[in-house]
Amino acid sequence: MKLTDSVLLLSLVLGGCMVGPDYQKPAMPLPQTFKEGAQWQRAASNPQGALDSQWWLAYQDPVLNDLVARSAQANQSIIAAEAAYRLAQAQVASSRAGLWPTVGVGLSGSRGEGGDGTTSSSTTSTGVKNSVSATLTASWEPDLWGEVRRGIESSQAAAQQSDALLAGVRLSISSSVASNYLALRQMDIDVRLLQQQQAINQQLLAMIQAQFTQGVATNDQLLVAQDQLTTSIADLQTSQRDREQYEHALAVLVGMAPSEFSVAPRNDFSFVVPRPPLTLPSTLLQRRPDVVAAERSAAAANAKIGVAEAAFFPTLDLTAQLGYRGSALGGLFSLPNRIWTLGPALAETIFDGGAREAAVKQAEASYDQIAANYRGTVLSALQNVEDNLSAINHLQTQADAFQQVYQRNQQLFGSQEAQLRAGTVSRETVLTQQLVLLQAEQNLRDTQGQLSQGSVALIQSLGGGWQP
């Protein structure tokens, strides 16, 4: 058997070897249940599960649906994340190219004059020479120890991480759109109620001023009435400012300048709160983008250990050249002008001052760090879900309480109006009760708005909703 045949056979046999540890997902013990009222089932990470869902449709608002759709097309953070994902895909293709030989072609020609190395006392022998060549070259470094394959494994995991990060950006942007939109609608309601409160406070102040002029009301009563009006004016300015800023935020989220974007006010808005089921399936947390991204990052780091360990083993280069070389282009491609070479080259680093050992230790330490970050991400995700479940539970109880307060104040206001018609109470008493009713309605609607926004936060913490 020839040397080249032996080397080729050896490369094929060893091509199945891969140094470095095979990936195992970092161990992470998980609780069996959620503390705040939902059951939990253990879940494995799944990059495909990071795909976003249309969870915002549960809020039954065409304007919100349109804003989310526009943000998905024009938001600059999403566009940047999509570009990063394409870059990661290109890196996978680049890594795979290392498995294949490199083939090149060349065509060259030259004409030159030079001495032939002989001299006499009177002349120097010179001549003009032509040289033409056409060559086909190929080189291949067999992946004997899996360095290239571990590199592919790492880049594939990195691409999956980038995919999860893209899904995370999409989820974050759509959640931000929903949260800002619901907050804007809450401000719409606040502005309406505060305008009504301001109008009532103006009427009450006018009454107190008239009574003060007549000597019926005291100066203290006048000061209190003035403070109540001024407070309602200040609260109205705060709500109007907040609405404008939420509108500005929505403009940026959909990729527009704030001066070119507006959302028409709605005073009759009704908040919808999608309620999570009593049992949350395991597929929810497994598709949470940050958990998926952290786990895929650990997989990529694990593969890099194998890349570093492969440097301890010799490399084999197989090269071949076939071509023609002659003195003229005519007749170049003839048997006498044919040239060829074929041969392997085996190389091994004997001493590098510990650079390879340091590279392996760096790769191992990097993996340990990223694995710890993955566990921390899972714990943070669990905390995030628990926090949002807790917020939903308490806000729901608070909303129920404010609903009862509002209903009682409706009854009281109706009673005061009846007494006004009967002439047993004053107009001032009825206006004061109406003011209390408006404040009770504001407390209720603000809590309903916070509950609706809290449901968005819960959906985001679960990776994008709980539907199958």
Automatic annotation (TrEMBL):
One Pfam family in the UniProt entry: OEP
Its membrane topology: Lipid-anchor
InterPro entries, alphabetized: MdtP/NodT-like, OMP_efflux
Low complexity: bias regions: 118-128
Entry's Gene Ontology cellular component terms: cell outer membrane
GO function terms (MF aspect): efflux transmembrane transporter activity
Keyword Transmembrane included in the entry's annotation: yes
Region (Disordered): 108-128
Main location: membrane
Biased composition (Gly residues): 108-117
Keywords from the named record: Cell outer membrane, Lipoprotein, Membrane, Palmitate, Transmembrane, Transmembrane beta strand
Subcellular compartments: Cell outer membrane
Recorded family membership: Belongs to the outer membrane factor (OMF) (TC 1.B.17) family.
Protein name, as recorded: RND transporter
Taxonomic source organism: Pseudomonas aylmerensis
